[in-house]
């Protein structure tokens, strides 16, 4: 069963000149349990993808299914329960001033019984490692912590898919690491399907599969390694290689035999075996 | 203009139960002509420090209502702070802070969110008009040409851009307009807080490139506050690491990142090149580079050449 | 990060913190009635006594409370001065042109100051000891009868909660934009009123744009969390406990007390 399925989706922003792209006949699937990274420069349409998936934006044509449920007015809330979206700005996603009240918000909206909401809060705060902050004031938390609370607020609905729409863009490296750790754990342990929308190339390395968007189209698809092998093409979409990719490429151009590895230890191994005369070409 | 700072301390909400010691006895000198990096976690004091440099935050002794405290008996008073930017003494109430601000430009985080005028030209000219001395006047032509120069140094087409609304531009363009709005007065020192934050990889690279264009003839000294170690390693002549309100380290990147353990123990990241150098060291290979990608690659290839 | 003194929750666990917000709201209204019914120093002293008890049980530091008073200091001095100078009556201590200081004036302003301070302290006690969320829950619950006339009680409560959440954020943002424009040479301190108002445009425009942007993202985030369904539950159920009974009895006692004082002791002035 596909977790997310876009079939021939058309979409254009109604306001003239609001975005310089439109989505035409878009096909896109995410399998259950997958971790997919969506890459693209600012304004490439990757956030539009997130907003279409949970019905914040309505496609002009085509079909969107989430776990075989067709996204329509009638099933809007069923889909939203299944697809949690975390947005960019950690300050703009909390409705309440106290952590637990905010985490409860989604669960309240779907009219869960009180005891169940309590259990959901326990579960969600545990999953993001913020149990101790249950009664804390949101305003006093760091950016990374606020964003973890936003994730918890989504988790309280027990979604099967989680979309992170540039949720790390405004965080410092420490906050970014916190979020990525949480997301990886949710994917591995809770088996939540993850769509990570980002323009940090390094984050995409962690995904099972990466998708590159440009002007509302999916232009590249494959494992992160496969994507980064096609660096010339990436550049035409205003994207760069992760720094490690650049180093591999340049060393190879300098006559070393290194593969396009994205891992520091294995690159070091390869350089070492080159220098120690083993298999230098 | 040289920045000289000694024994600078600053407390937010002083005297209240919410007092926070943001800076504790900071001493730091930044020479004219540097491309200086300021590193540290959120809340390490780096923003507080840079806001002192153009008088957005003031030392108590520079405020009109300041009365020096008499030291209590038996207590040695803390050493008096020194804060000089060029000829401006920032501890003195007589200092003209507006004149200082013209010389020390400051670009805040996400500066595109402070754009406000109907056209790019009006927005960029805002600072230019504000900083006019009494009686000083600029003709329309002079303003137009100054704005157009500022726009072209940040990589925008001055004539084409000038009449557009800043709100119709792309994120990267907005940011460049905002930077143009600060450098239009040709400050001698330009301070930028996370200039590349939130941009996509290409946008990041373009911003760093334009800062190198500005550095030198346009603004003699450039200071960037950054979390991005690679950015610091690639661009800066020297960098200071702030931690809990103090300067924990200050050195050129080549020395700074040699001491990777110290940075890691402060909970900070190190650049990719430094990680690779460490990994290679474990494998018995010493790469002596300055931690820029260029130099790292050159040195590794040289090692290969040496052994071939 | 700046601290906003007025209207901010003080996070400790206390007898008062645990009271039902509805009761605290009713208590505040009752207390306001009491301080206006009280027409003698005895009555006001009784009110002050009750308030001091509340403060003692709330574990909110006195300094924090004094800050709230500091916020209205100007208003207090101003009204006191007006009343002292313009109140006419016997026992004139000092007179000059239309100004005079009388015994009645002094007593009258003393009353006024006392009432103002009691009012402000009591309402800040409410906000110090009640989270914005439970406060809005309380208001929502008290307004529930209005649902019968199709009044959007929940939406109103949510708007209040969000407003409370975003006020500190927008204040920070204002400060940041102001600093950014100051760095570009903007001058907010000199010039006539027209110039000063004009000087605020470079702050207002970005601030409004930012507020709209935030509102849009918040709206999306709320949608994503299934807001807008027909049925909704509440995690925090308000329940009357023995604490609330104690509170209610105290209030009843206070109101009866000051009412009796008014009838039997009368106006001291």
Task: Give a summary of the structure in a few sentences.
The complex is a heterotrimer of chains A (281), B (308) and C (269). In chain A, 39% of the residues lie in helices and 21% in strands.
List keywords for this structure.
heterotrimer, A: 281 residues, alpha/beta, Rossmann fold, 39% helix, globular, B: six-stranded mixed beta sheet, four-stranded antiparallel beta sheet, 12 helices, 19% strand
List the helices and strands and how they pair.
The complex is a heterotrimer of chains A (281), B (308) and C (269).
Chain A: E1 2-11, E2 23-31, E3 35-39, H1 46-53, E4 61-66, E5 69-70, H2 76-82, E6 83-86, H3 99-109, H4 114-127, H5 143-155, E7 161-165, H6 173-189, E8 193-198, H7 201-204, E9 209-214, E10 217-222, H8 224-229, H9 231-236, H10 243-253, H11 264-275
Helix pairs in contact in A: 3-4, 3-5, 4-5, 5-6
Chain B: E1 3-12, E2 20-30, E3 35-39, H1 46-53, E4 82-85, E5 88-89, H2 97-103, E6 104-107, H3 120-130, H4 140-153, H5 158-162, H6 171-183, E7 189-193, H7 201-214, E8 221-225, H8 229-235, E9 238-243, E10 246-251, H9 253-256, H10 260-265, H11 272-282, H12 293-307
Parallel strand pairs in B: 3-8, 3-9, 6-7, 7-8
Antiparallel strand pairs in B: 1-2, 1-4, 4-5, 9-10
Chain C: H1 21-37, H2 41-58, H3 62-71, H4 73-86, E1 92-96, E2 99-102, H5 103-129, H6 132-143, H7 153-183, H8 193-199, H9 201-224, H10 242-265
Antiparallel strand pairs in C: 1-2
Helix pairs in contact in C: 1-5, 1-6, 1-10, 2-5, 2-10, 3-5, 4-5, 6-7, 7-9
């Amino acid at each position: 069963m596909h977790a997310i399925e876009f079939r021939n989706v058309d979409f254009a922003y109604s306001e003239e000149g609001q975005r310089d792209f439109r989505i035409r006949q878009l096909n896109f699937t995410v399998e259950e349990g997958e971790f997919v990274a969506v890459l693209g420069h600012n304004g490439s349409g990757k956030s539009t993808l997130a907003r279409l998936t949970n019905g914040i934006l309505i496609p002009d044509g085509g079909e969107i299914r989430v776990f075989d449920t067709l996204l329509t007015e009638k099933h809007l809330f069923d889909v939203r329960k299944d697809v949690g979206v975390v947005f960019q700005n950690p300050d703009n996603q909390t409705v309440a001033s106290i952590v637990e009240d905010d985490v409860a918000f989604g669960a309240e909206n779907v009219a869960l019984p009180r005891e169940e909401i309590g259990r959901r809060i326990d579960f969600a705060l545990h999953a993001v490692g913020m149990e101790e902050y249950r009664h804390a004031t949101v305003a006093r938390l760091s950016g990374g912590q606020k964003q973890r609370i936003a994730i918890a607020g989504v988790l309280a609905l027990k979604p099967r898919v989680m979309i992170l729409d540039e949720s790390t863009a405004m965080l410092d490296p420490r906050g970014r690491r916190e979020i990525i750790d949480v997301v990886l754990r949710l994917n591995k342990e809770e088996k939540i399907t993850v769509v990570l929308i980002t323009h940090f190339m390094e984050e995409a390395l962690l995904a099972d599969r990466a998708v590159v968007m440009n002007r509302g189209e999916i232009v590249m698809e494959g494992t992160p390694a496969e994507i980064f092998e096609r660096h010339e093409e990436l550049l035409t979409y205003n994207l760069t290689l992760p720094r490690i990719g650049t180093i591999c490429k340049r060393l190879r151009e300098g006559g070393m035999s290194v593969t396009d590895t994205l891992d520091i230890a294995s690159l070091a191994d390869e350089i070492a075996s080159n220098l120690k005369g083993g298999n230098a070409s | 203009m040289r920045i000289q700072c000694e024994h600078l301390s600053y407390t937010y909400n002083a005297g209240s139960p919410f007092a926070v010691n943001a800076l504790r006895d900071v001493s730091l000198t930044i020479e004219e002509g540097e491309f200086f990096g300021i590193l540290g976690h959120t809340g390490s004091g780096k923003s507080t420090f840079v806001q002192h440099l153009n008088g957005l935050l003031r030392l108590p002794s520079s405020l009109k209502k300041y009365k020096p405290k008499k030291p209590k008996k038996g207590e040695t008073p803390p050493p008096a702070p020194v804060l000089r930017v060029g000829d401006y003494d920032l501890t003195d109430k007589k200092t003209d802070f507006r004149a200082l601000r013209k010389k020390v430009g400051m670009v805040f985080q996400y500066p595109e969110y402070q754009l406000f005028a109907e056209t790019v030209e009006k927005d960029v000219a805002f600072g230019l008009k504000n900083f006019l001395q009494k009686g000083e006047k600029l003709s329309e032509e002079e303003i137009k040409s100054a704005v157009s120069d500022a726009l072209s140094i940040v990589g925008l087409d001055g004539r084409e851009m000038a009449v557009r609304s800043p709100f119709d531009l792309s994120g990267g363009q907005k940011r460049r307009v905002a930077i143009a709005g600060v450098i239009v007065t040709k400050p001698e020192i330009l301070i930028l807080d996370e200039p590349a934050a939130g941009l996509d990889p290409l946008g990041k690279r373009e911003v760093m490139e334009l800062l190198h264009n500005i550095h030198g003839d346009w603004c003699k000294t450039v200071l960037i506050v950054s979390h991005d170690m690679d950015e610091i390693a690639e661009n800066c002549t020297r960098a200071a690491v702030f931690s809990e309100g103090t300067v924990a380290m200050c050195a050129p990147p080549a020395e700074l990142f040699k001491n990777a353990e110290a940075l890691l123990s402060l909970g900070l990241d190190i650049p990719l090149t430094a990680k690779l150098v460490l990994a290679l060291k474990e494998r018995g290979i010493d790469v002596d580079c300055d931690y820029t990608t260029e130099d790292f690659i050159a040195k590794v290839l040289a090692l290969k050449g040496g052994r071939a | 990060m700046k601290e906003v003194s007025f209207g901010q929750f003080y996070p400790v666990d206390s007898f008062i913190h645990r009271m039902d917000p509805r009761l605290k709201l009713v208590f505040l209204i009752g207390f306001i009635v009491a301080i206006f019914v009280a027409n003698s120093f005895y009555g006001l002293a009784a009110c002050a006594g009750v308030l001091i008890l509340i403060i003692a049980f709330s574990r909110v530091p006195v300094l924090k409370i004094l800050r709230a008073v500091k916020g209205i200091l100007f208003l207090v001095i101003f009204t006191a001065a007006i009343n002292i100078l313009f109140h006419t009556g016997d026992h004139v201590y000092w007179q000059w042109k239309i100004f005079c200081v009388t015994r009645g004036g002094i007593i009258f302003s003393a009353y006024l100051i006392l009432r103002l301070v009691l009012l402000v302290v009591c309402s800040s006690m409410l906000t110090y000891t009640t989270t914005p969320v439970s406060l809005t829950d309380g208001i929502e619950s008290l307004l529930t009868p209005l649902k019968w006339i199709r009044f959007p009680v929940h939406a109103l409560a949510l708007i209040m909660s969000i407003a409370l959440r975003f006020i500190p954020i927008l204040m920070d943002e204002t400060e940041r934009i102001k600093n950014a424009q100051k760095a570009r040479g903007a001058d907010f301190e000199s010039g006539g009123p027209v110039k000063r108002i004009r000087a605020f445009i470079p702050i207002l425009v970005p601030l409004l744009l930012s507020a709209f942007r935030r509102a849009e993202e918040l709206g999306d985030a709320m949608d994503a969390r299934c807001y807008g369904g027909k049925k909704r539950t509440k995690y925090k159920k308000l329940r009357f406990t023995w604490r609330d009974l104690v509170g209610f009895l105290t209030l009843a006692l206070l109101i009866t007390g000051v009412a009796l004082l008014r009838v039997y002791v009368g106006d001291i002035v």
